[in-house]
Each structure stands twice: as C-alpha cells, then as structure tokens.
Amino acid sequence: MKKKFLLTGICAAMILSLAACGENAQKKEEQVSQDSQGSGTSSIEMNIDPEAQVKSLCDYSAINVTLQNDYTITDEDVEENVRYILEMYGLGTVEVTDRDTIQEGDIVNVDYTGYWNGEAFDNGSAEGAMLTISKDSGYVPGFVEGLVGEKVGTTVRKDVTFPKDYELNPDLAGQLTTFEYKINGIYREADYDEIPDETIAENFGDLYGLTTVEGLVDYMRSYLEQSVESSKTSEAIDLIKDYVVANSTVEIPEDYLAQRVEEYKESFIEDYITEETDLETYLSENYSMTLDDAMAEWKTYEEEQITVELLFRRIAQLEGIEIDEEEYAEFIQNFLSSSTAFTDEETMYEYFGSGNKENGETYLRQLYITNKAIDLVYSKATISEKPAESESSESTESTESTEATESTEQ
Asked: What is the count of structural domains for the chain?
C-alpha cells in the first residue's frame, strides 16, 4: 500500500539517527539516578567497555539493505496536502450560487446540534462546520448523507444511529439520535486560479515568504521531498542497526542490565507517578499490566538499546572515532535549539545526569560517538528501494482477486 504524507501543518522536522529527541525518551535511554538507587552507582559510572562485551562483530563495511516502504511522491500527494493546508486556513472553497439544493459531493456549511433522548449531548454541536456530502466523509454513517436534496436557508432534522462499536462516546454506541442542521450555504473546492495571490501573501507571506498558489504548491512538493529523504534515512538506519545486531554477538553484564532497568523504572516513576497513585495501580489502570509484566518489558527494551549502543561504540573504537570538540559543540547546540526544556548546557547536562553534570556530559558524549559510528556505517552501506508494483502486476492481482470472488459466488 502506498505510503501517504498528510501534514498536520507546515513545519520543519529534525531526525536524530539513534535516539528519539523527546525529553522523556532521551532520559529513558540512559537515565542516571544516583539519589534513587540504593547502590549509589549509575550505569554511566559502571563504565562498560564495548571491546570486552562485543564477542563477535559482523562485517559492517558494505551492508546492503532494501527499504520496504513506498516513498514515491505523486502529484496527487502534493494536491492532497495543499488542499489540506488551504482548508486549515479557510481558503480552499468558493460558494456555489447558481443553485440552492444540496447534491452528492457538495461541501456544505451548517450549524448542527445532536440530541439524544430529547437532550443535546456533549460534543455533538458545531457552528459553521464544513461537511463534505459523501459516504466517505469520515463521519458517523448517515450524518451527512441525509442532507442530499435539502435546501440552503432551511433547518432540518435527521435521525442518525451511532455504530455499536462507537468508542469516542460509549454512551451513544448503538443509540438512535437526532441532529438538527441549519444549512448556511453550498460550496465546492476552489480552483487554484480562483484564490487571489493577495490572499496567499496575507496568510503565508510573513512566515514562509509565499505570495502565490504556485509558490505554495512548489513549497509543498519540496517539503514532501525533504520529508521523504528523512524517512528514507530513518528506515535505512533502522535496517542497518537490525542487520548489525542480528549478525553480531554481545554479552551484557547482568548487573549493568539490572541497573539500566532500575533506572528506567525510576525515570518512569518520576515522569508519571504522582502522590495520588502508585506505580502498580498506574500500570494496571493505564496499561492493564502488572509490575512484573512492566519490568519484563523494560528489560527487553533495555537489552535492545544496550546491544545497539555497545555494537556501535565498538565500531567507533575500531574506526578510531573520537570527539571533535567543534562538532560536539554543534551537536549540543542542536539539542538546545530543538528543545524548550533546557536553557543552557549546564541545565541539559544536569537533566541527562539526573543532577550529576559529569554523568550527563559523559552520556551525551557517548551518544555523539555512537551517532558518528552509525553515520559511518550508513555512509558505506548500499541502500536500495523496493521496486514499485507495476500497473500490469496490479491489474493481474485485481483480475485474480475478481476471478477468485466469482468462483466463490458460484
């Protein structure tokens, strides 16, 4: 199935090759917590040597990987995302004035209120809602379809039965409700030449320097292309890491693994547990799991993380990768600029070291070295893309599916 790129807004994105950028995610990667640990020794201070723990290392000089996702960008992808952005800014439609009767496929502006047992229910009303009259509208079945044939300026009531498996409001699941619609107008998608350049400049000029619809289309295509390249890199790095792990052998010291799991648990408690609850209750209510279940899951997660860290730190040793202070300073500045949690390096080091600046700096220097090793292996790898399915093969699959269906019906 083709991968779709639907934006939730125009924004820039940064992808780090090893660890997630989120503050909590980074913290969980290797949380140092001296105050909360009985041993008083953090995993950083245990100073595990990759050379001693990596028992065998695969040939990483020319790894071949094949991307599994489809990264093709079509004109339809660009159109879909441009339309999405225009809709967000209320620019994507023009009013239909040559008729007043709603047809299938129209976009209709309505004020609506939903009633259940004669009372308006929560989150069941809106003003100025733009509804696309289609069975594929994404709304509850029957919510928009019944408006076909109704006229602008009228107020109508329609019965709508919610699906039995409706999860957004279980009280309404399977229930018969009534919606009252005040029909304000009929609209259609605007052709690009119907959107004045002044309107584009007014909405996108200051932030993005865009002054025409054509400029917005070009911007969107460029954004999608950049997004695709980042996604390709991310998938390739994941595949490379998987290959190195699958073809190498690492022994993780039990005390080190236990310390990492304990640090993960303490990090989880700090992030999610309040005075009103306890860890076991929180896990039961939010994840339907026991503390033993969670500890087992955290152990598996840490085993995977440690294995990757040790393997690529070992590669760094073999390749003589060292800290370049100028690059490292840029690496740290990227962290600072991509997060609102830190005001300066000292605050960041304290965060990643749970109050111990030296441990925090050690962690980030290890992360820098690990990323450098991953970048090196990535630069030597051969990255292939999975061949796109041809129209003929898709047609054959469709024919075979049809024949199978007909055979079953007979």
From this structure: 2
At which residue do the structure tokens 């040939």 appear? 59
Tokens describing residue 9: 């807004």
The DSSP secondary-structure symbol of 151 reads: B
Q: 107 forms bridges with which residues in the sheet?
A: 132, 187
**Candidate from 14-18, 62-66, 144-148, 286-290 with smallest mean pLDDT:** 14-18
CATH number for position 238: 1.10.3120
- Contact, 307 vs 250, CB < 8 A? yes
Instruction: Choose among 154, 157, 155: nearest CA to 143.
Output: 157
Domain that holds residue 163: 93-189
Q: Is 242 helix (H, G, I), strand (E, B) or coil?
A: helix
The CATH number given to whatever domain includes residue 166 is 3.10.50.40
Alpha helices in 30-182 (DSSP H): 50-53, 75-88
| Lookup: tokens for 50 | 């990759």
CB 56 within 8 A of CB 248: yes
In this structure, which long-range contacts are made by residues 292-299, counting pairs with CB atoms below 8 Å and at least 24 apart in sequence? 294/265, 295/261, 295/265, 298/261, 298/264, 298/265, 298/268, 299/257, 299/261
Which run of H or E residues covers position 130? strand 119-132
pLDDT exceeds cutoff 80 at 17:
no
